[in-house]
Write a structure and sequence with these properties.
heterodimer, A: alpha/beta, Glutaconate Coenzyme A-transferase, ten-stranded mixed beta sheet, three-stranded mixed beta sheet, 4 helices, B: alpha/beta, nine-stranded mixed beta sheet, three-stranded antiparallel beta sheet, 6 helices, 12 strands, about 20% helix, globular
Amino acid sequence: MNRYSREQMAERVARDIPEGAYVNLGIGLPTKVANYLPPEREVFLHSENGLLGMGPAPAPGEEDEDLINAGKQPVTLLTGGAYFHHADSFGMMRGGHLDICVLGAFQVAASGDLANWHTGAPDAIPAVGGAMDLAIGAKQVFVMMDHQTKTGESKLVEACSYPLTGVACVSRIYTDLAVIDVTREGLRVREMAPGLTLADLQAVTAAPLLPALNEGEPA
Amino acid sequence: MIDKTCDTLERAVADIPDGATIMIGGFGNAGMPSSLIDALLAQGARELTIVNNNAGNGETGLAALIKAKRVRKIVCSFPRQADSHHFDALYRAGEIELELTPQGNLAERIRAAGAGIGGFFTPTGYGTLLAEGKETRIIDGRGYVLETPLRADFALIKALKGDRWGNLVYRKTARNFGPIMATAAKVAIAQVAEIVELGALDPETIVTPGIFVQRVVKEAA
């Protein structure tokens, strides 16, 4: 089966982030999206630990332990960037000021329910961080994930079996097989990896899929 | 003359009793008041409830306090990290209690305490495990969860500069929880890289006004 590479997924998400957007990129795969935002497009990257206008990793030897991102990795501040305290930072998230956040996920349900913080395993130490705040706060929540688990189970499901991060909060899903919108009617396929048919995609997806709308057809 | 500065780190933390609730600033190691934590370790208070975003990293700071078994309970958002092995071991042994709070609720509960707010409804966590047993309400068609303020006896925070009135400025993302924790504790103690003369801080750029700060002490070299 043809699959999008991680780099292609990151490039694809970046295409949907317009100039002027205030954006939070989650830890892990979503971080890669920043590499595909063209420098001439001004996008404001937010980091939950108190900065807007986050720049790329510093050159070796230029790291500053007081300037880190949510993953606690050293970053830089772009010209025009700002620092602020945690309540302001989470106010930006919870108050609906961010246009887009991009998150990883264990599972997404057809209703847009998101599970990405806890596997529910009895021996797991629970840790939530800012995941629940991002899930409910951004105007659009994009999820970036593999379509299936390593053992071949669909991560798109009718109802999440893992503990929820947020209810009906996901707007769009980017997987290694497809780009899918969460709509009132259900999961609507926008794009598929080259050569894939809707039947192929449905066969590896544990929630009903709706076909792509034709250009110009009202959503 | 009002002088909130302390000569020594030891004196700054001398009156923290066993069983105290202490907010500790920092996000990972950025903003972690390591000098004050070391002084607290030496001082010996135990059975502490600690409020921090994490549960210690590596061997120093909060991790050292946890390792020394001084912490009875931790209120945090993200305890599980590759280098949080001291917390992991005590948690699995049932020797430390965890109150897990979404990070934005943690920040807002601290802010609410400092601002005299008796509680607030937030959409964060609605419909999840972390809202179980909490009061909920539908407001304008959306689900919200009631969260309560989080107060402390002491706050240990790190700032860049402070003066004898307790005015503070911070450095980069080391600011994080410092300004809100200072407002939510009965006694806020700030370790600073530099104690400056009154008037040296531009009043337009002071982040924490001295009303929220009771003690200022220079960090260890």
